[in-house]
Design a protein that fits this description.
alpha+beta, about 20% helix
C-alpha cells in the first residue's frame, strides 16, 4: 500500500484490518508492503476482504480515508479426483449383448473447474478387460464381451480410474472398484445324471406311498431351475404317479394301483423332466427337457386270501328249517403256491346286539363250512322281527393263518304268509246316522244303545290263506248335517269354535286381568270410603233400563205400585209370589173364624162356593181394600222423603233403584202346537223326518227327536223280525267280512 502523503521520511504509518489481518496477512508499517504469513488453500477460502489506512506517525491522524480491497486466492491443481460412493456392487444378466449398460460412476475434483484443467476428469478402466469397458467422459460401464455365461464365471471385479488435467501428464488421479455379478437366466436345460435307473418294489407296497425318487440336474438357479416330472408311457402312468418335491427338486414316484407279483413282475417308466419357466430368447439353444428310464422289479410277498367279490348279498325265506343253505363265498390265495383257504364267521356288532337269547347268551343265526364256504341257517328266522342280517366272513391261509381277510355278507329274510290279519280295535269306531259300514238298520239312536260289538273276520290273499277274527266296537253319536257332510255334534262344536290353544290362553289371561282390576277397585274403594258426590252442585241423574221379560198370561203382578203408595206396608208385601205366604193364610183363617155363620135356611155365601173359592174371594176383597187405602196416601210426599234421605246419605250411589222380579208362570194354557204327539205326527213317514235334516241347524233338535222315535220303532220291529227269522231257520247270524 502507498499513500500520496508519504514522502519517504517515515512520517506515515500504515495499518491493516479485516479477514486474516495480523494472522494470515501482515503489513509493513513503514513501506506498506503486505505479506502472507501462512499457506493459503483455495478450496477452504477463495478470497479475503481487508481494509487499509495511512496515519500520521506522530499525531495518529488519518492522512487518507480507510480503503477496502479483496485478496483472491488463485487455484492450482492440488486435489485429486475422488469417488464418494465407492466401492460399487452391481449385477447384469448373463448372456447379455455387447454394450449392455451396467452402471454409471461419477468422480469429483475439489479444484476450480473454471480455471485451467485442474478439474477436468477422464475415466479409464484399469482392470476388467476384455469383459467390460468404460466411457471416458460419462463414466458408464458396459459389457464388452458377448455370451458371458454365469455358469462359467459369475463374479467380476472392475477397477476404474479418474484423472484430472484431462488425462495429461502431471494430472492427479483416483480409482474405485465395481463388483459385477452375472445374474441367472434360464439358458440351461435339465439333465438326468444317467439315462437308466433300476428300483426294487415289493408287491405289498401300499397305494399312494412313495416307492422311488429320481432327480434331473439344472445348472440354473431359482425359478429357472424348477422342473416338472412326467411319466410319458402308458404302462408306467397306469400304475405309478410322479410328483415334484419343491425343496429337493426330486421326482417322487408313488404307487397308484396294487402290485401283483403273479400277474406282472416288472414295470418300465419313461420319465421326462421339463423346465416350467422358459425364456424365448434362448430357444435356439435347444429343448429345455430331458428323459430317463426307470425300471421297477416287483418282489414276491406272501399275501392274504382274496374274495371273489367285494361284498355278498344273499336271501333266504323266513321259517326255513335249520341247516338251509343261504349261499356261498369263495376266496383264493393270490400267491403262486395257491395255499388252501379256510373260512370262519367273524364278529358282527348287529349279531351281538340283536342275536341274544333269553339268558343273555349270544345266538348265531348262521354258520359257514370251513372248507367250502357255504353259509347255512342255525335256526328259524322271522322277517317281522329282523328282515336283514349283516354278517362278516373271515378267510385265512392254511399254511399261514396269520394272514386274514374279511368280507361283508348281507342276508335278506324273505317273507312268507305266516301272520293272520288282525283288526286294530284299540280305538272305537264312530258311526253316524249314515255310516259307511253296511248295517241292518237304517237309523241308530245313541239314546237307545250307544255301543255295538261287531264280530269281524279278516283273511288275506296269501298262500296258504290265513284269517283272523276280532271284535269291533261301534259307538253311536248324534250327528249334525252340513249339506252332504255329517259330523258328530261334539266334533262340529269344536270345529265351529275354531279356537286354538294360544287363543284360549289369551282369553283366560284377559279374564284374569279383568278380575284383578275389579278386585283392586273394590279394595281401594273400601279402604278410602270416599263419597261419590264431592259437592252439592255435582248432582247426576242416571236412568237404568232393565229389559225384564214378562211372565206371560199368568203374570198379573209384575209390578206393584203399593210400594210407592205405602212405604210402611212395603215391607209386609215383600213375599214370594210363587208360594202362598203363611202369615196371610193365618190372617184369612182368623178372619173366617170371626165371620158370622150363614143364616139358616139360606144359601151359602157365593151361592154354595167351596173352601178354596172362598179363600180366593177373601183375598180379592182384601186386595181391593188395600188398594183403596193406598190410593189415599200421598205418593209425592213419599218420593220427596226418599230423595232427602238419598241426598243426606254419602255412602250410597246418587240414584234410587227399584227392581221387581216376578214369577213367570207355569206355561201356556193353549197347550203344545207340536205334531209329534198327534195322531197325524205318529202316522208321518220317514221321509218327513229326513226333510228336517235339510232345513238347517234350527231344526236339528226336532230332527233328532223324530229320528230317535222312528229308530226306536224300527229297532223293536227289526228285533222282532230277526228273532222270528232265527227261530224259523234255526241259524246264527254270519259275521260281516271286511
Amino acid at each position: 500500500l502507498h499513500s500520496n502523503s508519504d514522502k519517504g521520511d517515515g512520517s506515515v504509518r500504515y495499518i491493516l484490518s479485516g479477514e486474516g489481518a495480523g494472522t494470515i496477512f501482515i503489513i509493513d508499517e513503514v513501506t506498506g508492503d503486505i505479506h502472507a504469513a501462512k499457506s493459503l488453500d483455495r478450496e477452504r477460502k477463495s478470497h479475503y476482504v481487508l481494509h487499509a489506512q495511512a496515519l500520521d506517525r506522530y499525531t495518529e491522524e488519518a492522512l487518507e480515508p480507510k480503503s477496502e480491497f479483496i485478496i483472491k486466492v488463485q487455484d492450482i491443481n492440488d486435489n485429486a479426483p475422488k469417488f464418494p460412493e465407492g466401492p460399487f456392487v452391481v449385477s447384469v444378466p448373463e448372456m447379455s449383448e455387447v454394450g449392455t449398460s451396467v452402471i454409471q460412476i461419477t468422480a469429483t475434483d475439489a479444484d476450480d473447474p473454471t480455471y485451467g484443467n485442474s478439474a477436468r476428469i477422464v475415466y479409464s478402466i484399469l482392470q476388467g478387460q476384455p469383459y467390460f469397458s468404460v466411457d471416458p467422459k460419462t463414466g458408464i460401464i458396459r459389457t464388452a464381451l458377448n455370451n458371458m455365461d454365469r455358469e462359467a464365471r459369475e463374479h467380476y471385479a472392475v477397477v476404474i480410474q479418474a484423472k484430472d488435467m484431462a488425462g495429461q501428464v502431471g494430472g492427479l488421479s483416483g480409482s474405485t472398484t465395481i463388483n459385477i455379478t452375472l445374474s441367472d437366466v434360464n439358458d440351461n436345460p435339465p439333465k438326468f445324471p444317467q439315462k437308466n435307473y433300476h428300483q426294487y418294489v415289493p408287491e405289498s407296497a401300499q397305494v399312494g406311498k412313495p416307492v422311488a425318487k429320481i432327480k434331473a440336474n439344472d445348472e440354473d438357479l431359482g425359478v429357472n431351475a424348477e422342473i416338472k416330472y412326467t411319466i410319458i408311457n402308458s404302462e408306467g402312468a397306469n400304475t405309478f404317479s410322479i410328483a415334484t418335491d419343491r425343496d429337493s427338486r426330486e421326482g417322487v414316484v408313488s404307487l397308484k394301483k396294487p402290485l401283483n407279483y403273479e400277474r406282472k413282475k416288472t414295470y418300465t417308466l419313461h420319465i421326462e423332466g421339463t423346465n416350467t419357466h422358459t425364456d424365448p430368447r434362448f430357444t435356439y439353444l435347444g429343448s429345455f427337457k430331458d428323459t430317463a428310464t426307470l425300471k421297477f422289479t416287483v418282489g414276491d410277498v406272501d399275501e392274504p386270501p382274496v374274495f371273489s367279490m367285494e361284498y355278498y348279498i344273499m336271501d333266504v325265506y323266513e321259517n326255513a328249517p335249520p341247516g338251509t343253505e343261504v349261499g356261498a363265498v369263495t376266496a383264493r390265495d393270490p400267491d403262486s403256491r395257491n395255499s388252501p383257504v379256510r373260512y370262519f364267521m367273524g364278529t358282527n356288532e348287529d349279531e351281538e346286539e340283536e342275536g341274544e337269547g333269553e339268558e343273555g347268551v349270544r345266538v348265531r343265526y348262521f354258520t359257514i363250512d370251513a372248507d367250502s364256504g357255504v353259509i347255512r341257517t342255525t335256526g328259524l328266522l322271522d322277517r317281522e322281527a329282523q328282515p336283514w342280517h349283516n354278517i362278516t366272513v373271515m378267510a385265512s391261509e392254511v399254511d399261514n393263518p396269520s394272514l386274514l381277510s374279511q368280507v361283508a355278507v348281507t342276508t335278506q329274510v324273505l317273507d312268507v304268509n305266516d301272520n293272520a290279519p288282525e283288526v286294530d280295535t284299540d280305538e272305537e269306531v264312530i258311526v253316524y246316522s249314515t255310516a259307511s259300514i253296511v248295517a241292518r238298520r237304517r237309523r241308530f239312536s245313541h239314546l237307545t244303545q250307544e255301543l255295538y260289538h261287531l264280530a269281524v273276520v279278516v283273511w288275506d290273499g296269501g298262500e296258504p290263506v290265513l284269517s283272523g277274527t276280532s271284535t269291533l266296537t261301534l259307538r253311536v253319536c248324534p250327528c249334525r248335517g252340513q249339506g252332504r257332510a255329517r259330523t258328530c255334534q261334539g266334533e262340529a262344536f269344536l270345529t265351529a269354535a275354531g279356537l286354538s290353544t294360544g287363543a284360549l290362553v289369551a282369553i283366560l289371561l284377559c279374564v284374569a286381568i279383568l278380575l284383578a282390576i275389579v278386585v283392586l277397585f273394590i279394595t281401594l274403594r273400601r279402604s278410602k270410603k270416599e263419597p261419590l258426590i264431592f259437592s252439592e252442585e255435582d248432582v247426576r241423574e242416571n236412568v237404568v233400563t232393565y229389559d225384564d221379560e214378562g211372565g206371560g198370561e199368568e203374570d198379573t203382578e209384575a209390578f206393584d205400585i203399593a210400594a210407592l203408595r205405602n212405604p210402611a206396608g212395603a215391607e209386609e208385601l215383600k213375599f214370594r209370589r210363587d208360594v202362598r205366604p203363611e202369615s196371610r193364610q193365618r190372617h184369612r183363617r182368623r178372619h173366617r173364624r170371626h165371620r158370622p155363620p150363614p143364616r139358616e135356611g139360606g144359601a151359602a155365601r157365593g151361592g154354595g162356593l167351596s173352601r178354596e173359592e172362598e179363600e180366593e174371594e177373601e183375598e180379592r176383597e182384601e186386595r181391593e181394600r188395600e188398594e183403596q187405602r193406598l190410593d189415599a196416601a200421598d205418593v209425592h210426599e213419599f218420593i220427596k222423603q226418599k230423595l232427602v234421605e238419598a241426598d243426606l246419605d254419602a255412602s250410597v250411589p246418587p240414584y234410587d233403584s227399584l227392581q221387581t222380579y216376578a214369577y213367570e208362570g207355569g206355561g201356556s194354557p193353549a197347550g203344545s202346537i207340536s205334531s209329534l204327539d198327534s195322531p197325524a205326527g205318529a202316522r208321518s213317514g220317514e221321509g218327513e223326518c229326513h226333510l228336517l235334516d235339510d232345513w238347517g241347524p234350527a231344526f236339528q233338535a226336532l230332527a233328532g227327536l223324530c229320528g230317535e222315535a222312528r229308530a226306536e220303532a224300527e229297532a223293536v220291529a227289526a228285533a222282532a223280525a230277526s228273532e222270528e227269522e232265527l227261530v224259523t231257520n234255526g241259524e246264527e247270524l254270519p259275521a260281516l267280512p271286511i
